[in-house]
Design brief:
This protein is an alpha+beta fold and 385 residues long. The protein contains 10 helices and 20 strands. Helix 1 packs parallel to helix 7 and helix 1 (14-25) packs across helix 10.
């Protein structure tokens, strides 16, 4: 079969779907392909946290280039949550978007001093975040352990249900005219006069422009047109408990330990924190590590004691894409006109709508509503041929 489209989006994760939605909203002919299904990999396997605060591991880095890159990206995270708040009411069902605030916990004076320095950096970039005392923590989060002596509180943080949100977004994009082809793996991509020819397992696609939104496999797509992406992917681990009465009312993180926790609308508590998974020796897919499961749950129970009586219902893994400066790659590649990057770094779900809007603006030749010059692929040196 042969398909024709104006814009071909490679990758049906949250970012690719958002690009398609915003393009279709403006009447652009767009086709999304995915080698599996929409929301199949990281977008459908993540825990649904909407982060705004710096993760503690990032905030502790001291390399000046990295520090400047992180500070530059901070304002985008707040815009990411706002973009979800604009988008969610337009979708065809409740996607369980809840912005109830986030707490990054401290158990020691050293951790508290670290949070004070971190929040100072964040406030300088316009984030609403403050360090609160143990008494103030207890007043808003009585479910937390007495071990907590303070926390960084950010009212802009929250959660969403990725298993509901992305499919709802796809249906909205389809109603606007976007097309989606599942089980359609990209095999080759050739720049030609006036556009590109894509060879897939379902046939040939002719298009004027291409958006690389392939997530952890974005480097393979970029390689097809001679572009090197300095990306890597980490297999990470998550857990979910049985449902319980309302308990965890915030997005929980920790100043030193690996921990994230939040409670889904159905009552299940989702527990993670960038704990490592392994790679299956045969499939190469991420696989569960028992030691990670036990350690993650032990940390969670230390800080939220009421989790102790809950049963673990499921544990799973997913790839997380990373960049050496922790920032995304967005916008057109000057060396390959018509080829656009939509490659997140870490918190792709939080920033899916804002990144998608910015890339869609770039594809349409509009001035971006947020400065993305610092996210260009040009910040990386070319790999020697």
């Amino acid at each position: 079969m042969t398909f024709d489209t104006d814009v071909l989006v490679v990758g049906g994760g949250i970012l690719g779907c958002c690009v398609a939605y915003f393009l279709a909203q403006e009447g652009v002919d767009v086709l999304v392909i995915d080698r599996h299904d929409v929301n199949y990999q990281a977008s459908g396997s993540n825990a649904g946290s909407l982060h705004v605060q710096m993760e503690s591991a990032r905030a502790k880095r001291t390399d000046p280039v990295y520090v400047a890159a992180i500070d530059r990206s901070l304002a985008v995270f707040a815009e990411g949550v706002k973009a979800w708040q604009r988008l969610a009411p337009t979708l065809d069902r409740d996607v369980e978007l809840r912005v109830g605030g986030g707490l990054m916990l401290a158990e020691t004076e050293t951790e508290l001093r670290f949070l004070e320095a971190k929040t100072k950096r964040e406030r300088a970039q316009g984030l609403a975040v403050d360090v609160i005392t143990a008494a103030e923590v207890r007043a808003i989060a009585p479910y937390l352990s007495e071990r907590v002596i303070g926390a960084a509180y950010c009212p802009q943080e929250g959660k969403i249900n990725p298993g509901i949100a992305t499919p709802s977004l796809v249906r909205s994009a389809e109603r606007l005219g976007a097309r989606f082809r599942r089980q359609c793996e990209l095999l080759a991509l050739s720049p030609e006069t006036g556009g590109f020819t894509a060879t897939t397992r379902q046939g040939t696609i002719r298009c004027h422009r291409v958006v690389n939104a392939a997530g952890s496999w974005a480097n393979a797509v970029a390689d097809m047109v001679g572009i090197h992406l300095p990306t890597s992917r980490r297999p990470l681990h998550m857990n979910v408990t049985e449902a319980t009465a309302p308990l965890v009312g915030h997005l929980i993180q920790h100043a030193s330990r690996r921990l994230t926790a939040k409670q889904a609308e159905a009552g299940n508590v989702i527990i993670g924190g960038a704990w490592p998974a392994s790679l299956h020796a045969i499939t190469g897919e991420p696989a569960v590590l028992r030691a990670t499961t036990e350690s993650n749950l032990w940390v969670a129970q230390q800080l939220i004691p009421a989790l102790g009586h809950l049963r673990l219902m499921r544990t799973w893994t997913a790839f997380n894409i990373t960049m050496n400066d922790a920032n995304p790659i967005l916008g057109e590649v000057p060396r390959v006109p018509g080829f656009f990057m939509a490659v997140p770094a870490n918190s792709g779900y939080t920033n899916g709508p804002i990144y998608g809007q910015l890339v869609a603006e770039a594809v349409r030749g509009k001035d971006p509503s947020f400065d993305i010059s610092g996210f260009s692929i040009e910040r990386f040196p070319e790999r020697p041929s």
